[in-house]
Amino acid sequence: MDSEPKRRSLLQRLFPPTPDFPGLLAEQARHVRLAVDHVVALLRGQELPPAQIDEDEAQADRLRQRNFAALNDAFSTPFDREDIYRAIEALDWIVVHMKRTARELEVLEVEPSPPMAQLGAEIQRGTSALAEGFALLAQRPQDAIPRGEEARGTNKRARAIYERALRDLFRGEVTTDMLKRREIYHHLADGAKRVGRAAEVLLNIVVKAI
Q1: Is residue 4 part of a domain?
Q2: Where are the alpha helices (DSSP H) in 44-113?
Q3: Are 49 and 59 in contact (CB under 8 A)?
Q4: 1-60 pLDDT, tens per residue?
Q5: What is the rounded CA–CA span in Å between residue 120 and residue 153?
Q6: What three-state secondary structure class fits 109?
Q7: What is the average per-residue pLDDT within 93-104?
């Protein structure tokens, strides 16, 4: 009488249910957008609770570890396993670079400037597109393409702002303040580059899914 439940239990152990990777990645992308929003607020001269950026990074790390654990344990995946790995990693790197930016603003005692806010706004625009794109993977992956293209353009748009900011910064005698600001610009430019890489992964997943 109980052979059927035992058989189902054995099959579940041998072939566990596939984790909801679209949902897991969408949640991670939403948190990246939130973490970016907080750093951009700093770049606009707003105040945040002292521990906010650290909390954002800690939560990002928890989501990264959870998603990697689900991937390692999964018997099967809804799309390419390597693409899932690259998506988890690419999303996490965005938070890493934004945390570094916030940290160096504090350590170097640099006041936010309009170019910093502009760079932050481009990263914010890109991560919003990423969050929307990953949220569409489960039901309407083809609709994620415009969001992915929008996010992929972040690096190009930010690079133009970065180069213009450097040109304007290094006019006249070089000072310590100039070098500090260049460091912040560099971190933000790297953050924009990471957004572009995450967009490439999203678009790669979509192309294979449709």
Answers
A1: no
A2: 52-73, 81-107
A3: no
A4: 455 565 555 445 556 688 999 999 999 999 999 999 999 999 999 999 989 999 999 999
A5: 14
A6: coil
A7: 95
Distance CA 30, CA 23 (A): 11
- Domains held by the chain: number: 1
Q: Say which CATH number the domain at 36 has.
A: 1.20.58.220
What's the pLDDT score for residue 15?
60
What average pLDDT score do residues 158-182 get? 94
Residue 14 belongs to some domain of the structure: no
Distance CA 35, CA 97 (A): 11
The answer to the question of residue 2 being in a domain is no
| Alpha-carbon gap, residue 101 to 142, rounded angstroms | 34
Structure tokens at 169: 């910064």
Q: Which of 46, 77, 39, 73 is nearest to 205 (CA)?
A: 77
Asked, for residue 55, whether it belongs to a domain, the answer is yes
Could you tell me which of 120, 101, 123, 115 has the C-alpha nearest to residue 170? 115
| DSSP for 139-196, written as a single string | T-GGGHHHHHHHHHTHHHHHHHHHHHHHHHHSSSS--HHHHHHHHHHHHHHHHHHHHH
Residue 108: which domain range?
A: 19-209
Q: Would the CA dihedral through 123, 125, 126, 127 be positive or negative?
A: positive
